Amino acid sequence: xxxxxxxxxxxxxxxxxxxxxxxxxxxxxxxxxxxxxxxxxxxxxxxxxxxxxxxxxxxxxxxxxxxxxxxxxxxxxxxxxxxxxxxxxxx
Length: 91
What we know:
Number of domains: 1
Low-confidence stretches: none
Oligomer: single chain
Number of helices: 3
């Protein structure tokens, strides 16, 4: 369902839209709706692009520290070492 919205365009914007509309055989309103759709979908494309770059970075960094133990074991070892250190400091 379309809802009516009123906007103000300056003379240059109106003239350019009218030229494009005539060239495409469509209306000014259709061009404006198309531009709004493009604008609104930009956020989704930005999020998709960021997600893709993040996944690529994670994939490239996998295995860069093969000397480290597996996740949970490594964390447990660090925590035990820290607990021992604090005990020595008499915390």
